[in-house]
């Protein structure tokens, strides 16, 4: 039998479910309003078609949104009993679940990620974040930040394009639970689900001004984080921009949390559960097209099993189905933008130039749209760019090690420190390795797991502050002794 | 350190039944706070004065620059020359701190607790010496200096008790929605650059250093520029307290000269701006951004260090590590 | 069976190995040299992480198979069915009507494919053989003191010979789970080899009864043990123990035959049995076959479903696909 004996017929999710409209507006003070900035056109990266025109904010809009947030914080939200705030957040969680299918399709259209991921990961996890944090709103005194923790005030939040709705949830839910109000800037290329979330907030009857959503490019984000009217900046995105923001808030007294880039090592020992390790490696780098800050972009494999593992890996990657993100059987969708595609290509070319061996999945690649076939570089060495720089795409760099110490040294040999993977059947080695990984999240015999109860965030240049769990509340609470400095 | 002949335990300590482990205990109680080149004592003996040096990697080197600066009391009287550390001293101190980090952060919390408690013991043994030094440095009454020294000793004890509770209090077993065991543990950030408070030469210093090292960090401390002598003497205490060399490195000199090097240093993970010069704070924060350092900002005014601390300073130099593992057979 | 001493067992493992090791690559021939080698080999297989395996199985189960792809899957699944009756109440009449169904599953749609085989107890093989002569539908028989396997070696071999002499083209044996779980791998190996020999030309499916093996590590070891001993198929279950076939267990066994093929060049088969009742289930299994073992295994020679009620659901769904409306249970034959 030949390999195309059984082609799954196309199984596209209906695009109508997204209720896509030609125009989207900013969400300020509880209303959808025009922005004074130049409207942007958001594009379906899988087809390069314009999906919608989206209003953007200029300086006056940022002012207006920050003022609305301030007023809401001081007059309504900050004073509201936690138990009442909780009920709003529970409502939001439920509304996200109810409109889950719509949000998933909209996300896939705007972002290019496979529908099965937006459906099974992004949207349910976003709802879970609201649900989890809703419960915190009236229990903050038990969170370990003093007997009477107070909100910080108005948070300016800037989020990336890789998990547009989920990142909005990660940012908004804890901020609101703690009594803060929010001005959120979604990414330039993926504003739609955040604005759909704005509708959900309206449906939940969230008081006006508690959440404001300002689409736009980097300039809007830069204005927002520099705005004098905000007390707290939360940013998820590249380390480069994170550093700019840290510089921008220097000397202002604004609180800051950063969730930045990564170059995680996925370390496979010779006694690993091999089939599951292969799955984990595949999931680690090809989930969401590798547009994941905690992606396992470096595979560190013990030399004694390197050939076997690579062979299994290639076989497995060959079965990944690249294509229409709306197709329920698509495993790898579209790269989010042309700019990102070019960056991936450039870094892959650097891998070639530096002598790494490129292997590309033989999967067919659509003619239109921004696609990059799953790629594995072997014979990669620490000195190569593809071993050091975050590619943020479906490109895996394979390195080898001989001893646990060498694995630790290589894994930690990066300015980043967001995540790490460890694959071995030996329990004591897992714990030994986990202790030594300079990374905020360590997945042992699994990878890319997220949960609102599990704090997530980086060491070193992957940022500071945590999102999720009790630890995640710190960013949005002023403890009683704040400022005393003792 | 000026020394007079009144060695042995004083009455107060004897009453408290303290163990005296350190022959240097004693004597300054009745003196005015002058600790510099002491005048000949009544018996006509000229005391041996101490050379104040840096404390780096467990040793007491002079500044590689060979520079010193005059330290005076609050009335302008000469107390001693202090080493004026250079950027290269700062660099060496960071190297020493990094070298000490794996062992110190890998030590058991119980062990770290005992070491911090040992610091309190050693400090208690030198109580009178510190009272004199603090009184001289800060121009406060002996009574006030005593209170500060006592509070500093007690602060070590407080933080000694925290070492093996931080993980319990700040860690968590996360009830994730799936077949995983997931836990979060606090871990030390790494090498911390500490700009010590400028006014409170001992209690303030202890209040910022102890929480940093209690959790397994190592640090490079720039002592109060005007009041550095108690810091150097604290170095002597640390050196005799089973604290591994390099865990605390104490630099004396100009904060404005040293701080930018620490703030920009690629191998410093966090920065405590507590005693940073006002005009420099924003610049230091900006420099820290180049390597995404964790920064604890300076309080608006130097706090009242005699107040009971909360765990904010412990938390400030901790990372949270979340570990997942499937549960299955 | 019943050789208590390790030494004696090792000797017989070695002699049993001689029969099957001729064509094996060196490292696999080594693995069956003696009891100790076999144990080392089986325990040296990579571990299986339960959560990871189950997640992969659940992930693949979300594949959406529609339209022509679904129709193809339905027809393929029908051709893979071992239509089974294994009841104490079975009679020649019941077997004859099952055979009629096997030959021509959907009388109104004669183009519907026939099943792979019917599967019965040894004493009813003769009936099935007579009914199915010349149809291309095989006759499979369970044997070796099915389903528990708790009898003497002599009884098991006699059971096998009874089936084969009555004309069974396929034998579904059970392994001695007691021996396996107590670590007497050599005994299990030896018994499979002996039954293999008794099968003659009949294909041998080795039932691991994964529901009793309890862990995926055991399932992987048992799969390799059976493959090393010459099983043509590894089969999940008797259908008499719960859980019977599951997707993760089948994934694991498909991985074993894939790896066996990579190491030996031989393609061996997999048969999940028990609990697969709907077309939706069957399609999920086929997706696993397709993506875990590979397209080559989408073939009744290499993949079977041990099932009874599944066939009718496949036929109903087949009509739905062809007629564009939902069918009902009264439009397919009940046997």
TrEMBL record, chain A:
- Which keywords annotate this record? Oxidoreductase
Taxonomy, superkingdom = Bacteria
State a single Gene Ontology molecular function.
Answer: oxidoreductase activity, acting on the aldehyde or oxo group of donors, NAD or NADP as acceptor
Where do the catalytic residues lie? 259
Aldehyde dehydrogenase domain residues: 32-477
Q: Which Pfam families match?
A: Aldedh
Family, similarity comment: Belongs to the aldehyde dehydrogenase family.
Name used for this protein in its record? Aldehyde dehydrogenase (NAD+)
What taxonomic lineage is listed for the species of origin? Bacteria, Bacillati, Actinomycetota, Actinomycetes, Pseudonocardiales
From TrEMBL, chain B:
| Gene3D superfamilies attached to this UniProt entry | Aldehyde Dehydrogenase, Chain A, domain 1
Q: Which InterPro entries match?
A: Ald_DH/histidinol_DH, Ald_DH_N, Aldehyde_DH_dom
The record's Pfam families line, in alphabetical order, gives: Aldedh
Region ranges (Disordered): 1-43
**Signal peptide range:** none
Does the record bear DNA-binding in its keywords? no
**In terms of domain of life, where is this protein from?**
Bacteria
Q: What Gene Ontology molecular function terms does this protein carry?
A: oxidoreductase activity
What are the Aldehyde dehydrogenase domain coordinates in residue numbering?
65-296
**Basic and acidic residues compositional bias: what residue ranges?**
9-27
Q: Which UniProt keywords apply?
A: Oxidoreductase
* Keyword Oxidoreductase appears in the UniProt entry: yes
Q: Any idea what this protein is called?
A: Aldehyde dehydrogenase family protein
Q: Which classification does the entry list for the species?
A: Bacteria, Bacillati, Actinomycetota, Actinomycetes, Pseudonocardiales
UniProtKB/TrEMBL annotation, chain C:
Asked if Electron transport is a keyword of the record, the answer is no
Q: Which GO terms describe its molecular function?
A: deoxyribose-phosphate aldolase activity
Q: Which UniProt keywords apply?
A: Lyase, Schiff base
Database matches in CDD domains: DeoC
Q: Which domain of life is it from?
A: Bacteria
Please provide the Gene Ontology terms (biological process) for this protein.
Answer: carbohydrate catabolic process; deoxyribonucleotide catabolic process
Q: In which pathway does it act?
A: Carbohydrate degradation; 2-deoxy-D-ribose 1-phosphate degradation; D-glyceraldehyde 3-phosphate and acetaldehyde from 2-deoxy-alpha-D-ribose 1-phosphate: step 2/2
**Which catalytic reaction applies to this protein?**
2-deoxy-D-ribose 5-phosphate = D-glyceraldehyde 3-phosphate + acetaldehyde
InterPro entries assigned: Aldolase_TIM, DeoC, DeoC/FbaB/LacD_aldolase
Key word Cytoplasm present: no
Identify the GO cellular component terms for this protein: cytoplasm
Under Enzyme Commission nomenclature, its number is 4.1.2.4
**Sequence similarity:** Belongs to the DeoC/FbaB aldolase family. DeoC type 2 subfamily.
What is the protein's name according to its record?
Answer: Deoxyribose-phosphate aldolase
**Organism phylogeny:** Bacteria, Bacillati, Actinomycetota, Actinomycetes, Pseudonocardiales
């Amino acid at each position: 039998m030949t390999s195309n004996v059984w082609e799954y017929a196309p199984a596209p999710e209906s695009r109508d479910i997204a209720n896509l409209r030609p125009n989207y507006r900013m969400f300020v003070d509880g209303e959808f309003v025009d922005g004074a900035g130049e409207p942007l056109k958001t594009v379906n990266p899988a087809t390069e078609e314009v999906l919608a025109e989206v209003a953007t904010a200029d300086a006056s809009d940022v002012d207006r949104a920050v003022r609305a947030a301030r007023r809401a914080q001081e007059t309504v939200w900050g004073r509201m009993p936690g138990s009442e705030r909780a009920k709003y957040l529970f409502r939001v969680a439920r509304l996200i679940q109810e409109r889950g299918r719509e949000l998933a399709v909209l996300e896939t259209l705007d972002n290019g990620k496979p529908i099965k991921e937006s459906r099974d990961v992004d949207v349910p996890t976003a709802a879970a974040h609201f649900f989890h944090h809703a419960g915190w709103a009236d229990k903050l005194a038990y969170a370990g930040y003093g007997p009477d923790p107070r909100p910080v005030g108005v948070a300016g939040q800037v989020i990336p394009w890789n998990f547009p709705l989920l990142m909005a949830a990660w940012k908004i839910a804890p901020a609101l639970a703690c009594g803060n109000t929010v001005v959120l800037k979604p990414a330039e290329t993926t504003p739609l689900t955040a604005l759909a979330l704005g509708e959900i907030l309206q449906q939940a009857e969230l008081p006006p001004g508690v959440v404001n959503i300002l689409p736009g490019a980097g300039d809007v984000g830069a204005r927002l984080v520099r705005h004098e009217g905000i007390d707290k900046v939360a940013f998820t995105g590249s380390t480069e921009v994170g550093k700019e923001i840290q510089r921008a808030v220097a000397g202002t007294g604004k609180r800051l949390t950063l969730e930045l880039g990564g170059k995680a090592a996925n370390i496979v020992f010779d006694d690993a559960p091999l089939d599951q390790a292969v799955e984990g490696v595949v999931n680690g780098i090809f989930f969401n097209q590798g547009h994941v800050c905690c992606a396992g972009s470096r595979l560190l494999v013990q030399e004694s099993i390197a050939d076997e593992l690579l062979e299994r890996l290639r076989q497995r990657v060959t079965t990944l189905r690249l294509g229409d993100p709306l197709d329920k059987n698509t495993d790898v969708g579209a790269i989010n933008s042309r700019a990102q595609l070019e960056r991936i290509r450039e870094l892959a070319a650097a891998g070639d130039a530096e002598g790494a061996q490129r292997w590309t999945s033989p999967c067919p690649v659509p003619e239109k749209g921004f696609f990059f076939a799953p790629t594995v570089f072997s014979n990669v060495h620490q000195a190569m760019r593809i071993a050091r720089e975050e590619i943020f795409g479906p490109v895996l760099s394979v390195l080898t090690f001989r001893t646990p110490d060498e694995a630790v040294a290589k894994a930690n040999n990066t300015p980043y420190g967001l995540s790490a993977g460890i694959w071995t059947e030996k329990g004591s080695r897992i714990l030994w390795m986990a202790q030594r990984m300079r990374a905020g999240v360590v997945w042992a015999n699994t990878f890319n797991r997220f949960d609102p109860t599990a704090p997530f965030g980086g060491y070193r240049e992957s940022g500071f502050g945590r999102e999720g769990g009790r630890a995640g509340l710190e960013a949005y609470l002023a403890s009683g002794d704040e400022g005393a400095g003792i | 350190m000026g020394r007079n002949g009144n060695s042995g335990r004083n009455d107060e300590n004897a009453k408290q039944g303290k163990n005296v482990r350190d022959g240097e205990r004693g004597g300054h109680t009745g003196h005015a706070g002058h600790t510099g080149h002491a005048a000949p004592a009544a018996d006509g003996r000229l005391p041996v004065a101490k050379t104040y040096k840096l404390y780096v990697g467990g040793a007491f080197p002079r500044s590689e620059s060979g520079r010193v600066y005059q330290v005076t009391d609050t009335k302008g009287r000469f107390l001693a020359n202090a080493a004026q550390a250079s950027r290269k001293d700062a660099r060496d101190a960071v190297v020493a701190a990094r070298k000490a980090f794996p062992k110190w952060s890998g030590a058991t919390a119980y062990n770290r607790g005992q070491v911090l408690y040992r610091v309190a013991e050693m400090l208690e043994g030198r109580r009178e010496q510190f009272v004199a030094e603090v009184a001289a440095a800060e121009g406060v009454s002996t009574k006030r200096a005593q209170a500060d020294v006592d509070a500093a000793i007690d602060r070590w004890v407080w933080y000694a008790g925290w070492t093996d509770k931080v993980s319990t209090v700040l860690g968590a077993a996360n009830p994730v929605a799936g077949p995983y065991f997931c836990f979060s543990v606090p871990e030390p950030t790494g090498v911390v650059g500490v700009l010590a408070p400028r006014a409170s030469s001992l209690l303030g210093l202890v209040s910022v250093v102890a929480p940093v090292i209690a959790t397994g960090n190592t640090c490079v401390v720039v002592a109060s520029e005007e009041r550095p002598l108690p810091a150097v003497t604290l170095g002597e205490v640390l050196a005799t307290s089973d604290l591994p060399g390099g865990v605390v490195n104490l630099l004396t000199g100009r904060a404005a000269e040293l701080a930018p090097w620490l703030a920009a240093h690629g191998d410093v993970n966090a920065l405590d701006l507590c005693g940073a010069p006002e005009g420099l704070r924003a610049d230091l924060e900006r420099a820290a951004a180049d390597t995404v350092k964790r920064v604890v900002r300076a309080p608006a005014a130097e706090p009242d260090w005699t107040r009971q601390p909360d765990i904010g300073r412990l938390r400030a130099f901790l990372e949270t590590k979340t570990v997942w593992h499937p549960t299955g057979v | 069976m019943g050789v208590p001493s390790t030494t004696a067992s090792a000797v017989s493992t070695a002699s049993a190995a001689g029969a099957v090791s001729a064509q094996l690559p060196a490292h696999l021939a080594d693995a069956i040299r003696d009891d100790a080698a076999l144990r080392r080999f089986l325990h040296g297989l990579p571990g299986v992480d339960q959560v990871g395996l189950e997640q992969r199985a659940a992930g693949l189960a979300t594949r959406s198979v529609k339209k022509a792809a679904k129709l193809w899957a339905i027809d393929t699944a029908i051709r893979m069915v071992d239509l089974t009756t294994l009841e104490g109440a079975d009679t020649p009449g019941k077997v004859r009507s099952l055979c009629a169904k096997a030959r021509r599953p959907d009388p109104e749609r004669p183009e519907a494919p026939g099943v792979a085989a019917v599967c019965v107890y040894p004493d009813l093989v003769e009936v099935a053989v007579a009914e199915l002569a010349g149809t291309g539908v095989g006759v499979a028989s369970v044997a070796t003191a099915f389903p528990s396997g708790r009898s003497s070696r002599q009884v098991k071999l006699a059971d096998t010979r009874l089936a084969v002499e009555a004309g069974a083209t396929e034998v579904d044996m059970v392994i001695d789970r007691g021996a396996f779980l107590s670590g007497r791998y050599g005994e299990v190996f030896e018994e499979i080899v002996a039954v293999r020999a008794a099968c003659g030309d009949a294909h041998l499916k080795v039932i691991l009864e994964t529901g009793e093996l309890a862990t995926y590590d055991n399932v992987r070891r048992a799969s390799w043990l059976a493959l090393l001993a010459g099983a043509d198929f590894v089969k999940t279950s008797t259908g008499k123990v719960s859980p019977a076939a599951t997707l993760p267990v089948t994934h694991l066994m498909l991985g074993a035959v894939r790896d066996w093929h990579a190491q030996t060049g031989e393609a061996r088969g997999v048969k999940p049995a028990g609990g697969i009742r709907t077309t939706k289930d069957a399609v999920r299994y086929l997706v696993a076959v397709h993506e875990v073992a590979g397209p080559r295994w989408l073939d009744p020679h290499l993949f079977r479903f041990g099932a009874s009620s599944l066939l009718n659901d496949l036929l109903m769904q087949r009509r739905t696909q062809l007629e564009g409306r939902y069918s009902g249970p009264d439009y397919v034959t009940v046997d």
